Amino acid sequence: MQKVRQLIRPEQIRELSLLLIIILIVIFFGSQIENYYSARTFQRISSSVMIIMVVAVGETMVVLTRNIDLSVSSMVGFTAYLAGQQVSQNDNLSPAVVVLLAVSFGALLGLINGLLVAYGKIPAIVVTLGTLAIYRGALVEYGHSKNILVRDLPDWLVNLPRETLFSVGELDIRLLAGLAFIIVIIFQMVLLFLPYGRRLYAIGSSPDAARIAGLPARRIVLLAYVLCGALSGLGGFIYLSRIGTVGTTAAQGLHMQVIAAVVVGGVNIFGGSGTMIGMMLGAILMGILEQSLIRMQINEFWKDAIFGMFILLAVASDALMMNRLRDLWARGAIQMRIAQDAAVQKE
Amino acid sequence: MNQLSPVLEIRGVSKRFDATQALDHVSLTLYPGQVHALLGENGAGKSTLIKIMTGIHQPDQGAILLNGRSIQVTNSSQAQLHGIAAIYQEPMIFPDLNVAENIFISHRGRGAVVNWRKMYHDASDILGKLGVHLEVRSQARGLTLAAQQTVEIAKALSLKTRVLIMDEPTASLSVHEVTQLFNLVRTLRNQGVAILFISHRLEEIFEIADHITILRDGKLISSKPVSEVTTETAIRDMVGRDMESFFVKDESRRDDLILSVQGLARSGVFSGITFDIHHGEVLGFAGLVGSGRTDVALALFGISPADEGKIIYDGQPVTIHSPAQATHLGIAYVPEDRREYGLVMPMSIAANITLPMLRRYLTRLGIVKRRAEETTAEEYRQRFSIRASNVRLVTSKLSGGNQQKVVLSKWLNTKPRLLILDEPTRGIDVSAKAEVHHIINELAKEGLGILLISSDLPEVLAMSDRVLVMREGRQMGIFTRQEATQETVMTAAMGQKITVGGI
Question: Does residue B261 share a domain with residue B159?
């Protein structure tokens, strides 16, 4: 048991149990829905999850610092619209330029959030509730309620969601879904192996201690917001290519799904703990639920209610389970110390 | 002390906050390999001085010299670069990170990528040099306060700290842990670190310090080698007047029982707790921190109820399963952490005092009767001489000692018959401490049964009619006032041999 405790952290048990829930849910829906185990189901779920996953990577970083970004849906909408407008006016824009445009415009919007939160000392929930409305309002003003239409978009963009990276049997792993997965892995590595990543955890874990330890807390939080904006920009680009027809209400309400994925994925809403892998599992779980409930033709009200129930269950079980586990781990550590002390005394 | 050049000098530093002169031309010299104690009542300017040394505040006047050269310290990371680090009463650790990460979080230049293996190795190395056993992979959240402090010391050491400020590091440690901490402090001293040590416990100061500086009202009162200071002169310098050395409780125990506890247990936490409390009696609870004293109190107050054993209250067997029920029975619990559980800081003194009994202060329409509330609060303010111009003042503005008096007032206003006090004088200054002792004495005389949990051994011995000693969740014995001495109680608390005591 002692060895187990040293090798596995409570967070990892949580991720394993999330994986188990996903498997159980898939088995359940498989027994309820005809022809559930098909390439089509996989395609639907993976393409609906990929946008949420990319944006939630940025959201996770912000949440780890004990902040929140509610404005992601407006950032996704705005960047999707802006990129769509530019690409439909200039046919010869290269894909790289379009992606860069979306990402850097998102980063700019994130910078505004970050400056207000980190340097303006306004609570994050207030700032981003404000910018959620402001960015959306600015988009409506900018777009004059005109839609970007699929027929105005270049072919490469419209066909992008069907580009396949590789196939496993009948399942095609699409380029964009692969991209989302790679981003999750890259940022998981950032959290694990870059000093910046560890400092994100430190700041969310104890802001007071961070100040005393001399960590550049404001810069770290600012960068988290800029990255969140940039990833929302990338999310906006994926949204544009997947949906095609983009109006000024694009991606409205997406922030709730993003935050749901983060929370269900076990990222502590008060900062300091959580992983990208957990968030990804959370996003996948929510995606499977959503798509499967649509397939079962359950009405909108019940779908939302089941969604909400899952979020509550996740957070409640998280609090219960993690406290228990941490307690168990801590007691193990104390027992070990007592044993060592005893051994030392014997000598 | 063979090196005679000072590492850090503070020259004529002054600092003013609005109307208060927090520091008034204070000078202090720290030598490598010296433990320099800083004494003073709360509000004497100790915290301000520390905050100036660590760059949180800037002095209005005066200079800080490091190795003879004047330096500017404008934030914590600059202080770190100059080799100045501080450790506080509440460890400033990152609960979600593990031990090794906590040690290296402020380090620069350990490469662009975190090398976990090397970090664990280096962390074990540093802890090994300090002679402590700690699993470097375990999360800081689960560690005891003492272990968390050790992590902070290890961190300071790894940052090549030359000046280590320790602000009341022993306030929440048990006797055993203090001994270990002092061993650490001596190790650091021998390595040539200059240590500025702050504590309210005089006997500790005399044990560890080489030099003692005393502040009062922002002014430097005295600064002498420890050999020239005695307890009496130190207390006199701190309070500015002579004081009886330690107040001893009057005899007030009556024959009728208020509470009888038999074989109380909570699985995995404590077991076999058996004791009686009479009216007018103070039963002291001694033991190391983590020995389960607070857990027994929490069980009696119904926060985490016991799962075995009998509680006979006022002659009736009862099971206590919620704080509301305990309050109804006439049990009041004054918790250890005033900031978190004791007071609602942004509310007024009056609102805090009436909070548990608010129903008594409501009109028929459910509106708070401000005048009745303030009358009650005013009574307590005068009775306990709470230093505030009026009871409408918010409690966050009060000093620790006065906050503690408000907490006491709040629970006494519930008219309890059994009062549980958990570390009632922790972190408050000498004169406020004496006042709290007087209050306990008065309450016992009125016939209240009092259960006093305290890590301050002289306090427990002076204030208790009998002392129950716990160790690792078990009851080691109950000592009468005659039997209880520092040695007997300590021996039982350390579990070196089981001493037989009456119940």
Answer: no
Say how far apart CA B33 and CA B195 lie, in whole Å: 8
Q: Is A305 on the interface with B (CB under 8 A)?
A: no
CB B331 within 8 A of CB B300: yes
Judged on CB neighbours under 10 Å (0-12, 13-18, 19+), A168 is exposed
Q: Which amino acid type is present at position B440?
A: I
Pairing status of strand B61-66 against strand B163-167:
unpaired
- Kindly give the pairing relationship between strand B211-216 and strand B35-39: parallel
Cβ distance B139 to A211 less than 8 Å, yes or no, reads no
Is the CATH number of domain A38-318 3.30.70?
no
Residue among A210, A331, A336 minimizing CB distance to B135:
A336
Residues A43, A46, A47, A49: what is their CA dihedral angle, to the nearest 10 degrees?
Answer: 150
Query: Of B239, B260, B278, which residue sits at a domain end?
Result: B239
Distance in Å, alpha carbon of A28 to nearest chain B alpha carbon: 36
* pLDDT, tens digit, 9 for 90 and up, residues B106-137: 887 777 888 899 999 999 998 888 878 888 88
Tell me the CATH number at B273. 3.40.50.300
> What would the pLDDT profile of B209-263 be if each residue is shown by its tens digit?
999 999 987 889 999 999 998 877 887 787 665 444 566 778 888 888 999 999 9
Residue of chain B with shortest Cα separation from A197: B114
- The ipTM, to two decimals, is 0.79
| Structural domains of chain B, count | 3
CA separation for the pair A319, A307 (Å, rounded): 19
Residue bearing the bigger pLDDT, B452 or A167: B452
Same domain (yes/no): B211, B147: yes
In a domain, B439, yes or no: no
Tens digit of pLDDT for each residue in A15-33? 888 899 899 999 999 998 8
